[in-house]
Amino acid sequence: MNLKRHFSFAAWLMASALACAAGAAYAQAPAPAEEPDTLILSDSLNYDDLKKESIFTGNVIMTRGLMTLHADKLVMREDAQGFQYGTATVSPGKLVSIRQENPEKFETLESRGVRAEYNGKADEVEMIGQAVVTRYICGKPFDSVKGQRVIYHQKNSTYEAHGGPDSAAPGGRVRSLARPQAKADAAVAECRKKSEPRK
């Protein structure tokens, strides 16, 4: 598996999750017809027009197409230049989760962390604390990276993974597992065969 491509997809889903929440909170130009709607459910919403800030709290569930974000709190804001920033957090002992499904490839990508941050100006997405990004094929874990922080730089399509005391990997290290693309292709082919109607 190409790790660069893997994390490009991971970052896309995290960015879309956080950036689209901002789009839902602020009055903006209508999105293109092909883009799915964004729905955010929460126990409460506080919007400050002066600060250009929206705070969703309590069992926050955001869905956009086949992407779902779960958090206890989602804070979105916009700066004077129109750049958007988002932070998703949870209470102690829990993790922010972002799930993106790709039925055509029988893939599901899951990202988890204590906190997820989106920086629109720097074009960066970061999972912080107990960070884990895993790709599933036909419901089985296939590729993954674990660390204290996983950062994706969208401008140049590069990523960083850092260890530390709050790493999801043993010993505070970074752990990355990438299986050969041939194995992924074989798993998809097998899953496709099983899903085809019997004649």
Question: In a nutshell, what does this entry contain?
Answer:
This protein is an alpha+beta fold and 199 residues long.
Chart the SSEs and their pairings.
Elements: H1 3-25, E1 38-41, E2 44-48, E3 53-64, E4 67-78, E5 84-89, E6 96-102, E7 107-113, E8 115-119, E9 124-137, E10 140-153, E11 158-162, E12 175-177, H2 181-195
Antiparallel strand pairs: 1-3, 2-3, 3-4, 4-5, 4-6, 5-8, 6-7, 7-9, 8-9, 9-10, 10-11, 10-12
Contiguous low-pLDDT stretches (5 residues minimum) are 1-12
Structural class: alpha+beta
* Major sheet: 6 strands, antiparallel, barrel
What is the CATH topology descriptor?
Answer: lipopolysaccharide transport protein A fold
How would the global form be characterised?
globular
Structural description of this entry:
This protein has 199 residues and is an alpha+beta fold. It has a single domain (3-195), classed as lipopolysaccharide transport protein A fold (Sandwich). 19% of the residues lie in helices and 47% in strands. It has helices spanning 3-25, 181-195, and strands at 38-41, 44-48, 53-64, 67-78, 84-89, 96-102, 107-113, 115-119, 124-137, 140-153, 158-162, 175-177. The protein is globular, with a radius of gyration of 18 Å.
